[in-house]
Amino acid sequence: MKKVSYQNASMRFFGFAFSLLVAFSSFSLQAQDGDPVAGEKLFKANCAACHALNRKMTGPALAGVGDKYEREWLYSWIKNSSAMVKSGDEQAVAIYAEYNESVMTSFPLLTNTDIDNIIAYTMAPPPAPVVADTTAVAAAPADSGISNNIILGILGLVLAVLVIMLVLVNSTLRKIAAANGVVVEEEKRTPIWKAFAQNQFLVLVTAIFLLLGSAYFAYGWMMQVGIDQGYAPKQPIHYSHRIHAGANEIECKYCHSSARVSKHSGIPSLNVCMNCHKSIYEVAAETLAEGKSEYGIDYNKEIEKLYTAVGWDSENQRYTGETEPVDWVRIHNLPDFVYFNHSQHVEVAGVECQTCHGPVEEMEIMAQHSPLTMGWCINCHRETNVKTEGNEYYTKIHEELSKKYGVDKLTAAQMGGLECGKCHY
Amino acid sequence: MASNKKYWKSVEELDTNSTLVEALKQNEFIEEIPTDEFLGDKEVLESSSTSRRDFLKYVGFSTAAASLAACEGPVIKSIPYVVQPDTIVPGVANHYATTIANGFDFASVLVKTREGRPIFVKNHDKAATNASANGRVIASVLDLYDSGRLQGPTVGGEAVTWNAFDNAVAKKLVEIKASGKKLVLFTQTFASPSTTKLINEFKESFGNVEHVSYDAVSESAALDAFQNKYGVRALADYDFSKADVIISVGADILGDWQGGGFDAGYAKGRVPHADHGKGKMSYHVQFESNMTLSGANADKRVPLNPVQQKRVLAKLYAALAGGPSISGELPAAAESAIKTAVARAKKAGKNKTVVVSGIQDATAQALVLEINEMLGSVAIDTDAPKMVRSSSNKAVESLVAEMRSGQVGGVIMAGVNPVYSMPAKLGFEDALSKVGFRMTYSMKADETANACEFVAAAPHYLESWGDVQIKKGHYSLTQPTIRPLFDTRQFQEGLLQLMLSNKNYYDYIKDNWTESVLVDSSWNQALHDGVFQAPAIAQEEVVVAAAADELEESTSASAYNMASSLARNAKDVAETQVILYTKTGMGDGQQANNPWLQEFPDPITRAAWDNYITMNASDAAALGIENENVANGALNGHYSTVKVGDTELTLPVIIQPGQAKGTVGLALGYGRTAGVKDELQTGVNAFSLYNDFDNVQTAKSVSAPANGWHEFACIQLQNTLMGRGDIIRETTLDIFGAGDKHAYNEIPMVSKDHQEIPVTSPDADLWDSFDRSVGHHFNLSIDLNACTGCGACVVACHAENNVPVVGKEEVRKSRNMHWLRIDRYYSSEETFDGDNQKKENASGLFGDNGVKDVLISMEDPSENPQVAFQPVMCQHCNHAPCETVCPVAATAHGRQGQNHMAYNRCVGTRYCANNCPYKVRRFNWFLYNGNDEFDYHMNDDLGRMVLNPDVVVRSRGVMEKCSMCIQMTQKSILDAKRDGRTVKDSEFQTACSAACSSNALVFGDINDKESEVAHLKKSDRMYHLLESVGTEPNVFYHVKVRNTDKEA
Q: Which residues form the Cytochrome c domain (chain A) (predicted)?
């Protein structure tokens, strides 16, 4: 018993030792190889702005970087590259020179383990998630649409058969009657249109209705002339506000910055695009697939168009200087005789862009949301209160005007926002 | 009361029986609507093969097509920057400080640019000297967008590249060097320290180079006199705000005399202040031949011919010096004017007196300097003189002689057009053809460029670098505000290129400045400010002033000699004297292709698009020359031929009230033909008479009328205020000084229930007043005393508000579009009532107060009238007559006091213009942009670049008028809102008030009690135009006060 217990004890020791060994060896294995999944997170958070796996960006492509350099060298490079360049490390100086002497950000807070994880990711990135099911989901509603059509088709067919049958029955009966010598006598009646024409009252009423009706529709048609609500032209580059303002939640005024200070909201110049697109050279695989299936657009090709326009050589990460300015089709057109100032509405009044431009963040293709008619402007001026708080300009006028009109809050109209000359000069 | 005075705008109005004036008073729309013209005459209609059915078919089809086409909106493209410059935000204006120095006008200016294009030039308030941009300077922005500009260098008329050009020039220069002949640089006055240095370096490097500077309108006499006395070739500077008595003998101090730019100082001294029962303002006496702006503004004007002017100057010296008198015959009026002036000078203190002269005679100019030194005048500055003119008549004449004799191997010209501006007698073009190498830097294919083999396309000043020393010690910089539009190169770059320097001119200026101008100051700051004042000047001034005192004794004897020789040599001439002058709108003619300036009506004659002979009424009558006002208010005049030497010029005559007898005036700067659009080739080139560069020429003959009538584009009888008086109010300094407002500025009374009540009382009002005490309430103040009539505001309004140019024919039809006009009124010193009284008081037939003399003196009040200028724009009435009659409510009132005009709402009934008592509304008879019939700047893409993007370009068939620059006030308000602060008083401006360097126009918010305009509104001199109508305008005027003589 005792022996057994001894054996057990020795077994336990060995077992423990073995497990310890296994544990240790697995730990050391992990220390060298890292965890690619954790690495991916770290990579995207810290490195992706300047590095990609398989292409040069601001910094070199990182796929297989673990094989190119000593691990210890990589640790110190990542933690403080500029110190290495200063110290005259040969490899460091070479890479510094190759990438236009741009200094790599130091990451002193990354532990060696973190760096190992990142390297593990760069050595063997996890496979991209399969996107087949999204297309399957997208295909499903299309099926039900087809079945509806089939049902309608069948119904139509049945009706047609019924009509043919009735005609056949009628003609057969007539033939039988003719064969039997029965003469069907047709009553002489004035045709309905003649009766209508002879009834002057009816003609008059109908004419009046017709005239009124056509006037109504003519008025409706004429009033929409020159109003381009819903205007969504095809643009030279398929730019998706849905992705930028919606999915990525980029603030409108990041790109349309002149809306803050100028009467124009401004179409962003291409250098603004390049602030991000220098490093974003392709969209995520699922976005790409979605673009292809939903809108028939290859988003990556659209980014290429931007590069051509701005003259960016993405292979060598430099500007070629050969630019092709983009001819955007202007969507919101106010007539020349209207003065509208974005900064007045955006900065002073604090109006959300969406108030006039609609849910831009949901628009794949930008469209004019509001009618932009004078009535539409005026209504808003009548209903909207002026944001006077904290603006010294309004202090005195608000006090005096609210006393005059006996209200706490002043609308733009009460402030003088309905006067002709405020917008027409 | 002052308003009983007799005012007239045209001599025609003096004829009380004139049916024309009566008709013009009664009719707003003088012309019948030309239906006949529109329909054509019967014969043509009948012979046409188009039947009525066809006509209706076409009309129907085209209407349907037009309306269908209108349904489809156009596709508009927007092209953003690829890389947006960080200083440019679309929709936000940038301002740059720069300097214009075109050889005639020198001024520090601010340039407003939008999206990188300059659209407006205005006064630079930070500059101490020449910061007052005149009309020509303001209009200069349009020269940049001149479609007639040279777009690249040419050799022998063929366009070449700069490389080919340089090679060809280099070859020529080698030839010149080999021949041993000299190379001449024949340029404008640059007044540029860096250019001077560069030219000297070029002289050294090339050897045998001569530099001759040339001013088209010469100030050589004054320059010589100044150089003799002070050793510097420059012109004395004057600050008329420091003078209590201004005596001008033939000097148009408010015009282009000695480079101009004296208005601001002058106007400052002209605004009267009441102080302890006495009024105080400067006293200005003017002896002159032509009616000039200065004469028009003077308190006492004596029309004299040039010979008499010389005597006046000599006698004036004697009277001021108090020494022995100088003989010479003068009219009684001149004698008494001298006496009064001297008495005034003694009273004011001699050092508060200044004497100036425009006589082109070195002795006269030297005498002026002596007189001012003797007086110890504080208004003259000889220590920091002005450098804006430099040409020497002798040097120019000898150069032409050398050119003719073949001593000159080559000439390089820059900024000059001598083929146009040299007198015919000198034969410059012929002399030039004898020069082997002829090259010019020119913006346009002008007369000189056509005579040169090598034409280097030069940039506009808004595209160039440069530095200017307008006044000694006062430096300013020229910087580009736009990238060169064309393949151009400036003269200085060209010199650097010839010297094979690898520096560009920007670096050259910067190095020169850091070395010798700035000392320790910052270049970037200087460039930002546009001006830089050397700090050392102040000390120097004191030392020199002290030295001048010692000199005085010794000079007095020689001054007397000068005066007596001047008087001795002033011999009467029997022939007519031709006085050449430059017009406010045209200057020396280099801006002839500028439609704004062509359309600008001359302040005195009110005629645009022409030059002409101005002649005294009695001289004209003697020759049988007449002027005739036709039914629509336009003016026709006879032609006359003036012969000077062998040169004959035929020009129309305008009979000018106040023109000295025996003299005629003739404006330089017209008659340009090369490089000028057909429509803008106006007038006759008077430079051909400019012999010896003297503005006074003796005519061999002035002929009687010939060639029928000339049609002037003269607007003096147009837009009259319907025969209502009480427009100009004026008084004398004594009455004003006494402090009783009612004596000179009565509020009109109206009758209510048979009771006389003042028109301003609420009972007299038809309407309930809107409470305007909340928010802003804009008012514009116009001081008739400070307004010199220069017209800078008219051009500024043109530029800011996209006012179209309509052309000579349309102006003649009273269809000019100026939102702002400056009415010029003549008045005689008598009233109609006074005339009658005078006639009754006359005693005896002859003698001092005899009926004969009295009647003669009354015969022609136009011999020497008083003049008053009155800018009139929309008065923005609180109770506006135009608003109540608009059938579509296109014009309405804003609570900020502005009368709004919604062009898109206007249907063009013109009822508003009909009902406007001030006649300030303008109707768009045609589409003036993109219309070949109006081939001015708005007809090509280049010219349209000057349009202000914040103001709509009006279309045909709508009414327009002054908006009180609502785009500018709205911008100031928005800027304040965005910053969360209140608006500062100085932020509110209109284009006209910003352009007014004499501070006659002041704009602001009267609800801001601290504002300047609120103070001005409380002034005793304040009155409203046609107050009796009860329109309650938001524009108010200040009674004109004249410092008249009671002693005389």
A: 34-126
